[in-house]
Specification:
With 853 residues, the protein is an alpha+beta fold. Helix content is 40%, strand content 19%.
């Protein structure tokens, strides 16, 4: 702590001293000598007759000696007084007297105080200023500077900051706020604080405009403490002069040289600033400042180089925040400074203004009736400019959705586990917020308004994803068993149709069963497509050829009132997709377009293909599209279009705008699943009354030499007319199927057509048969999903045992990794369930080829 004792004034030589006998010791000596003289005289007179003449003479002599001593004391003191007066006349005044005399008559007000602020001495100018400012009040003591400026904010923290600087042994000067002296007008002063010996501080008030800056004060006071950093710059990056703001941001002590720019900025920030030299005008550079306490803060630097002297630059640095100061560096304190905190200025107000969420001060404790006293910029922006001082806090929110302001505010103030939600009417959707309140103090309260719109959207997306995942799991979980049942029904129905041909009374009923099975199988396929769990066989495709092949079917789907126009783009890249699934996606889009134009009496359905680059796909809204060329397939109709609310839900499962019974709501969900599973993107653009365009983006694929040969062979095969198939044949077949009904009817059918069939109920049994059979098999037909060893696992484990055996997998649902296996294993065929007896026989005939003849 600073020394609080009163300073001891120094005594000058020209002040007269008191006579010796006026002091306690002198008075005692004087009276002792006087008593001795009187006593000696009395004894001499009284005892003269008894002792004779010698005693009288002796005592009389003792009295005389005492009187002489008294005279000597008096004479010596008088001589001393005379000598001191003479010395005082000839001696020069002391330096202390000269200093205090000079300060007493100094025109600027001067005050001396201790480090705690207690006033010790003031000159006449300061006392006169205190009288004008009314600082004396009812006290007889000298008023301090902050007391004089009490009506002007107490110096706005200036006195405190200067006192702290002086306590550190540093001199400092700042401009004080205006001082109102009533009839004497308003004056402004610079206040300078200089540390003195003995823990004292000398305060000097200098009228504004009369202060003389020295060489060390290269910038005026107002610029020293501006809210932005100002500094000069040399071509080598040195910073010769900068204001106090930059010094504070960097945490530099007074008098410490500024580091070069490369040490202030991270990365290549300094290099980019210096590269602006030689340019015209002001250049702006974004950089990161190495601020105090190791904090890196984003800043912007505006630099201009002198036109006549390209070696001199001047720059302004401002933090990317509301106040302009780099975040986190304003008033950081170390643990060692906790006992003597630094001045924090308006740190709380800065935190209030810079908060990334809404903060509002209310004039009452009840937020339902309170009026807004103050609000930060974040809430003003969040509310679309509605949150302003003077309005009712409760009126900011929209309570039309059933929420009660009383319940919401009570829940927020109670701090319950469930957040208090409200909605601000900022745009069409509104802004969802969570409310929190601080404890009431002085009958007032602070409210915090946190934007959770993005959170709510994530919750909605997460809920939608969970719903889609649930449907996908349901589809994947039941599709295998359901398709097995459908396969058994269809195969047995086909067997009965062989016994009851056309014209038989039972034919129509059996055919109705088959149609119902087909509809059920189509619904399962849609569910699997939506959940992206279909079995894909990826192959290299030419989109133009795919559209040409499907165009015949498309013309059958659309009505006579709809004009179909297919426009083929040039130089389309090849794609890799499942042809059947891609055709299904295009057919579904065409069917939706037909239905949308039906209400308008028809229109044009245009399918356009084009080659696009990755930027086009990215601009359409695709996140992180693959680099390279893409193929775009746009399906455009002239239907009634869709509004924004409908557009947000069109890809959701079971959502439909059609009447009940006229749509399952899985059409677009199926298309979306197919496109996503093919590695592409699907976007919709619609306007009410003008129509809709669905655009499929598929990544381009560069075919290998083998794929090129396969494409050429496929083209040649198209020109060869196939003869009617003879479904009978020969060969040994291993049939692996865990569903007994499917295995038995399939084996029975193949045996009737001349094949030798060995049955296995699972993968383990099939592997044992392969190990034991020396003759081997010409074909293995295996289910994909089986308990224990599944179809792909059996293929991998028994590859050596199979040799040249052809493989056909059958399944109604297969895992995604099987799609990859199927695409890689080109010698493996796939037959989706449910299939007919004819389809099974054709697939076997196709695989065995000449051997079955």
């Amino acid at each position: 702590m600073a020394d609080t004792s009163q300073p001891t004034p120094q005594v000058d030589a020209n002040i007269e001293r008191k006579p010796f006998w006026s002091k306690p010791a002198g008075r005692v000596a004087f009276w002792v000598c006087g008593i001795i003289a009187v006593a000696a005289a009395a004894v001499a007179l009284i005892g003269a007759g008894q002792d004779g003449g010698h005693g009288l003479v002796y005592l009389f002599g003792l009295a005389v000696i005492a009187v002489l001593i008294l005279f000597a004391i008096a004479a010596g003191e008088a001589a001393g007084q005379t000598m001191r007066r003479q010395v005082a006349r000839n001696q020069a005044p002391s330096t202390t007297e000269i200093g205090f005399s000079a300060m007493e008559s100094f025109p600027d007000p001067v005050l001396i105080s201790d480090q705690r602020g207690a006033a010790r001495w003031a000159n006449a100018a300061y006392r006169e200023l205190a009288r004008k400012a009314g600082g004396f009040g009812q006290s007889f003591g000298l008023p301090t500077v902050d007391r004089l400026w009490a009506g002007s904010g107490g110096g706005d923290g200036t006195v405190y900051r200067l006192a702290r600087a002086a306590a550190r042994g540093e001199g400092a000067c700042e401009l004080l706020p205006p001082l109102d002296l009533d009839e004497h007008g308003v004056q402004r002063f610079h206040l300078e604080a200089a540390p003195q010996d003995g823990g004292l501080i000398l305060w000097r008030l200098m009228p504004a405009g009369e202060r003389e800056d020295g060489a060390s004060s290269a910038l005026s006071d107002w610029s020293q403490h501006s809210p932005v950093a100002l500094f000069s710059l040399r071509p080598n990056g040195d910073v010769p002069v900068a204001n106090a703001t930059l010094r504070d941001w960097l945490g530099l002590a007074e008098g410490t040289p500024f580091p070069p720019l490369r040490d202030m900025l991270t990365g290549d920030g300094a290099k980019r600033v210096l590269q602006t030299r030689g340019g015209e005008g002001i250049a702006r550079i974004d950089a990161r400042l190495k601020a105090r306490d190791g904090i890196e803060s984003p800043v912007a630097i505006a630099v201009e180089w002198a036109p006549g002297d390209p070696g001199a630059g001047r720059a302004v640095m401002y933090g990317l925040s509301v106040t302009g100061a780099p975040p986190g560096v304003a008033q950081a304190m170390s643990a060692g400074e906790a006992a003597e905190p630094r001045p924090t200025g308006r740190t709380l107000d800065d935190m209030f203004g810079n908060a990334p969420f809404g903060v509002v001060r209310l004039d009452g404790a009840d937020p339902e009736t309170a009026i807004i006293e103050d609000v930060n910029p974040a809430l003003v922006q969040l509310s679309g400019g509605k949150a302003l001082p003077g309005i009712k806090f409760c009126d900011l929110f929209n309570w039309e959705d059933g929420r009660s302001p009383t319940d919401a505010f009570a829940s927020a103030m109670a701090g319950s586990g469930d957040p208090a939600e409200a909605r601000l009417d900022h745009d069409e959707k509104g802004v969802y917020v969570h409310l929190a309140f601080s404890p009431a103090r002085g009958g007032k309260r602070v409210a915090y308004v946190i934007d959770v719109t993005a959170w709510k959207e994530l919750e909605r997306q997460f809920s939608q994803a969970n719903k889609m995942q649930a449907v996908g799991q349901l589809a994947g979980g039941v599709a295998h068993d359901f398709n097995n049942l459908l396969t058994a029904v269809r195969l047995n129905c086909d067997e009965l149709l062989n016994r009851h041909p056309v014209g038989d009374p039972d034919y129509s009923e059996l055919q109705a069963i088959n149609q119902t099975v087909a509809r059920a199988a189509g619904l399962v396929r849609k569910l699997l497509a939506f959940s992206r769990k279909q079995t894909f066989r990826m192959e290299t495709l030419d989109v133009g050829d795919v559209l040409s092949d499907v165009s015949v079917l498309l013309r059958q789907i659309v009505e006579e009132t709809v004009r179909l126009d297919i426009k083929h783009g040039r130089d389309l890249p090849m794609i890799k997709a499942d042809k059947g699934q891609l055709e299904t996606a295009i057919i579904n889009l065409a069917a939706n377009a037909r239905d949308a134009m039906r209400e308008n009496g028809g229109g044009s359905l245009v399918i356009t293909t084009a080659r696009v680059d990755v930027d086009t796909v990215r601009n359409a809204g695709a996140p992180n599209p693959r680099e390279g060329d893409w193929t775009a397939i746009a399906v455009t109709d002239e239907g009634h279009g869709m509004d924004k609310a409908t557009m947000e839900k069109i890809f959701e499962p079971f959502f439909t705008t059609k009447e009940a019974g006229k749509g399952t709501g899985l059409g677009l969900a199926t298309v979306y699943g197919i496109v996503k599973q093919s590695g592409g993107f699907l976007f919709a653009d619609s306007e009410v009354g003008k129509g809709t365009t669905f655009t499929i983006y598929l990544p381009g694929h560069e075919p290998t030499e083998e794929e090129t040969v396969e494409l050429e062979q496929a083209e040649e095969a198209k020109t060869v007319e196939k003869a009617p198939a003879d479904l009978s044949g020969r060969g040994r077949i291993l049939l692996v199927e865990d569903e007994d009904a499917v295995r038995q009817i399939a084996a029975k059918t193949l045996v009737k057509r001349g094949y030798e069939v060995v049955e296995a109920c699972d993968g383990e049994e099939a592997y044992e048969i392969l190990e034991d059979e020396e003759e081997g098999f010409d074909l293995m037909i295996s289910d994909v999903v089986m308990p224990g060893l599944d179809g792909p696992g059996l293929l991998k484990k028994a590859r050596d045992l199979l040799g040249d055996t052809r493989v056909v997998f059958i399944s109604g649902y297969a895992a995604e990794q099987f799609s990859e296996t199927l695409s890689e294993e080109q010698d493996v065929s796939f037959l989706p369930k449910p299939f007919t007896l004819t389809q099974l026989a054709e697939k076997v005939k196709e695989e065995l080829g000449e051997k079955s003849e």
